[in-house]
Design a protein that fits this description.
This protein is α/β, with parallel strands linked by helices.
Length: 241
Amino acid sequence: MVIDAIDRKQLLALVTAACRGRTGLTVGHVNAYCFELLFRDERFAQHFTKMDVVFCDGYGAKLGLRLLGARVAERMTPPDFIDHLFSSLADLGERVFFLGDEPAVVERMARAVDSRFPGLVAGAHHGFFRIEDEMGLVETIRTSGASLVLVGMGMPRQEEWIMRSRDSLPRCSMMAVGALFRWYTQTEWRGPKWLTDYGFEWLCRLVVQPRRVARRYFIGLPQFAARVAGLLMSGCRAEVE
């Protein structure tokens, strides 16, 4: 497993510079759920080896990676840094396209960001498009003037879309952001900072959406712990760049 040993300041600087230079950076993140997918889904794992930047998003992933020898600078999650990124991009006159979630949610996201950062929003589209409509969607993004596409369609679909579309959008940077749109618009309660900062974001999500996430946490978290323990016993170590 390869993860970049960068902190929040470095990540924001990399993304901002890529948007300004139109170099087409691709950004992914690792959490406990992703960790298990990497071992079960070979195609998903290949996508991560091709990402330009992979950062740690998740308290469990941070702990697991450190146990495996990775010097993870800090745990970063998009809701905590996205306004700082928006502010930097708005100051430079860059524009952002929002892709993912349900129509009402992504439209609410676009309105919320536009009210705080006028001129930043290049466009928005829900994540429930048909594969036959994808070429038209890519063209919409290409002509929107966006230098950054935030892709919130959940794992592994958001990473698959980024890898599938990067060659068609070479001047757009893309970042996988999971449930960011829901949290940013308060469509879904994220939980207080004193819980989320200390590894209990999963508990907040379980309270809000038990049917949706119960399997991920009641089965997935023990699997993650077992996976880390197995890797430690076998002598495997995480790679850091």
